[in-house]
Amino acid sequence: MRQWRRLAFVALMLLSMLLTACGGSNAQATIVLKIADYSPEQKAFHEAVAAEYHRLHPDVTIQWQSTAQAQYLQSLPLSFQSHQAPDIFFYKSQLSPELSMSFLLKQGWIRQLDPTGNPDQSFLSRWSSDMFQEGINKHNGQVYGFPFTDNVIWGPGFMFYNKSLFQQAGLDPANPPTTWSQFTSACQAIKAKTGKYCLGVSLKGTDLQRMWYPIAGSIMTDQFFDYKTGTFDLNNPQLLQAFSFIQSLYQKGLVAPGVNDKTFSRQQLASGQVAIYFDGTWLPSTLTQLGFSESQYGIAAPPSPDNGPRGAEAILNTQNVYWVSSQTQHANQAWQFLQWMTDPTGFFAKNYLKDGFGTLAFADNKSLITDPAMKTMEQIAASGLRVNYPEPLLKCPDLAKSQAYSKAAGTQPNGEWQTMVDAIVKNTPLKPGADKLVTQRQKTFLDTLQQEAASGLKVSQSCFAFSNWNYNENYTGGY
């Protein structure tokens, strides 16, 4: 009798499974769309995005996976090698961001955004027409990428300061220093009257960029390549002057000691161990997580040289960062999601801005921003913090096939940061190391251009040189 009961139970289970497979139940099969990036601090936001999209599209489940950057950059190539790549993924070349698409095409990792290759105007009109450029996010006339992050407000270049320490030092938090000499004087007052270090500077890995970009940009450029002359530029006299200013703050004992990373330096600012820290648009959300409220800190433009030339940070078309995988089995669903995600006034845009993660290239940031810190940074950016730089690729389209710049920059890829950190730690002049690095880079650059030109590519150093342009002006010279 027990044996018959067991057989009956098994038969019922098989029948249930068969009915489910044939659609005999109310369960609805869903497509799983996998998205990968390295923004773990946005985990809760991504979960909210996934839930909202599934509510609107019950047939699609979003799995958004965010890991630490170092881990992500190691795992992404392996996912393609094992044919387990995500459907949509984040990628931005560290050497030549504007050539991210060229690299990804060469790897065979991406396909067109729209399965047809030609998104309609309702999608493209979310950006200005000059944001879709052949060789940057278009290939053979078809669209592969789109600008995600705004490139005017978003980025490094802001001075964050602890209002309480300013007040204790007798400084007016409403009037932070605007010149290099004022900055040094304010730092000396802070050190003398509070006993705290004035400045936190991150030196670990490439973290010095948070201090370097705004100071170098204030006198010349935040780029390690000079678009006026078509040369690598760490040994340029103006950049050597920017470095000397930073080094002088160390020599006066105004900088917190140690080769610290950005996490440690940010905690120093939030805990009142240092009064000033330079960072980017992304910092307010991090400070909130550290319990340092917007009422406790101020944000200002970086100080500029007292006399002499002025520069600006670069606006480049380098924010094409989300791509559709060539391995996706759900190209239509991926395209539908990206259209929904980039709705200028949609759920994603409103909540991304509300949560203070940055600014978006496809949204009306000025009207949607509600965070006071973000509004302040929008005002600073509007005052000329960044300017439109020339784009060599538009001058010489064959540069999309060139390896000259990436090969030169890829030799000792973090060489500029290593050279500057060594000079700071050892308290030695920057010029000898900068000369050596620039000579090496420039030789590789010119040799490769010459080889490519001999093979038939229309490329030369002149493609990278815009002699009539000034560092603190929007480039309008045409191509």
Which of globular, elongated, flat, extended, rod-shaped describes the shape? Answer: globular
Let me know the average pLDDT. Answer: 91
Strand content: 5-15%
Proportion in helices: 40-55%
The major pleated sheet works out as: 5 strands, mixed
Strand segment tally: 15
Care to describe what's here?
- The protein has about 475 residues and is of the alpha/beta class.
- It has two domains: about 30-155 and about 320-380, Periplasmic binding protein-like II (D-Maltodextrin-Binding Protein, domain 2), CATH 3.40.190.10; about 155-315 and about 390-475, D-Maltodextrin-Binding Protein, domain 2, CATH 3.40.190.
- The protein has helices spanning about 1-20, 45-55, 70-80, 100-105, 120-125, 165-170, 180-195, 210-220, 235-250, 260-270, 285-290, 330-340, 345-355, 365-370, 370-385, 390-395, 405-410, 415-425, 430-455, and strands spanning about 30-35, 60-65, 90, 110, 140, 140-145, 160, 195-200, 225, 230, 275-280, 295-300, 315, 320-325, 385-390.
- It has a five-stranded mixed β-sheet. Strands 8-11-7-12 form a four-stranded mixed β-sheet. Strands 5-6 form a two-stranded antiparallel ribbon.
- The longest helix has 24 residues, at about 430-455.
- Residues about 1-25 have low confidence and may be disordered.
